[in-house]
From TrEMBL:
Residues 56-113 are annotated as: Disordered. Residues 3-59 form the DUF8129 domain. InterPro entries: DUF8129 (IPR058442). This is DUF8129 domain-containing protein. It comes from the Bacteria.
Length: 113
């Protein structure tokens, strides 16, 4: 099956969040087509579950939603994560080392006399 026949353009490249949004506008036959394509190609469990659940909803009377599907978010926005800690050590000279570390005398810095 060529990608041109799929009801969603660039289906195979859509992130999950965008797929969840766009599949809501599809009729049951289109969802079945995507489900067949998914099982025959990538066979991604979360996508199969999404499509199966949407198909069940449609078969139980849910209606496709309207709206501009081209304006759906492509990917969730994430804030950068990470630690401001650097591997270079304490920022100030003479500052005590971290908890549980020992100085060159074998005693913790906070216990030196």
């Amino acid at each position: 099956m060529s990608e041109q026949k799929l009801p969603l353009p660039d289906y195979d490249e859509l992130p999950m969040g965008s797929l969840q949004h766009r599949v809501r506008a599809l009729e049951a036959d289109d969802v079945r087509l995507l489900l067949e394509h998914e099982r025959a190609h990538a066979d991604r469990v979360p996508v199969i579950e999404l499509l199966t659940n949407r198909l069940q909803d449609l078969e139980q009377g849910a209606q496709p939603s309207s709206g501009d599907q081209s304006r759906a978010p492509e990917a969730p926005s994430h804030t950068p994560a990470g630690s401001p800690v650097t591997p270079t050590g304490p920022a100030e000279p003479g500052r005590p080392t971290g908890h549980g570390t020992r100085s060159s005398t074998g005693q913790g810095i906070e216990h030196t006399e």
